[in-house]
Amino acid sequence: QVQLVESGGGSVRAGGSLRLSCAASGYTFSSYCMGWFRQAPGKEREGVVTEDRVGSTRYADSVKGRFTISKDNAKNTLYLQMNSLKPEDTAMYYCAAARPRPYIGGYCYTPDYNYWGQGTQVTVSS
């Protein structure tokens, strides 16, 4: 079955950087949409950056210019490079995968992200 395991979280000062990793297994990594979500205490889970089609990404306005998603298909690993971190970035970060919808040309939407990792905590202090 699909397994996603995040790592790389930690505690950093505002302005610092972290790189999160997501090790994937149990499915054809390159054929699924991949993304990162986060959830802060008392808040709903939100998309940080997702693929709306394999290879096509959408970033939340709050992270544009600071975060970058990347893939290493050979290693079945997804990354999230986070720069210029802010206290409001503090959250549990989750890796997620979605099966593209073939009847709409292989696009993925938020409800399609049905496979989740366990999360990795990111804490940013001022």
Structure description:
The chain contains no helices and eleven strands. It is mostly beta strands. The strands form two sheets. Strands 2, 4, 5, 6, 9, 10 and 11 form a seven-stranded mixed sheet that branches. Strands 1-3-8-7 form a four-stranded antiparallel sheet, with no helix packed on it. A hairpin with a 4-residue loop joins strand 7 and strand 8 (77-82). It is globular and about 45 Å long. The mean pLDDT is 96.
Q: Tell me the fraction of residues in β-strands, as a range.
A: over 45%
- Principal-axes shape call: globular
- The radius of gyration over CA amounts to 14 Å
Low-confidence stretches: none
SSE string, helices as H and strands as E? EEEEEEEEEEE
Number of helices: 0
Helical amount among residues, as a percent range?
Answer: under 10%
Overall mean confidence score, pLDDT: 96
| Total number of beta strands | 11
Distance between the termini: 40 Å
Topology diagram in text:
Blueprint: E1 3-7, E2 10-13, E3 18-25, E4 33-39, E5 46-53, E6 56-59, E7 67-72, E8 77-82, E9 91-98, E10 113-116, E11 120-125
Parallel strand pairs: 2-11
Antiparallel strand pairs: 1-3, 3-8, 4-5, 4-9, 5-6, 7-8, 9-10, 9-11
Keywords:
single chain, 126 residues, mainly beta, seven-stranded mixed sheet, four-stranded antiparallel sheet, 11 strands, 0% helix, globular
Offer a concise description of the structure.
The protein is mainly β and about 130 residues long. It has strands at about 5, 10-15, 20-25, 35-40, 45-55, 55-60, 65-70, 75-80, 90-100, 115, 120-125. The strands form two sheets. Strands 2, 4, 5, 6, 9, 10 and 11 form a seven-stranded mixed beta sheet that branches. The chain has a four-stranded antiparallel beta sheet with strand order 1-3-8-7, with no helix packed on it.
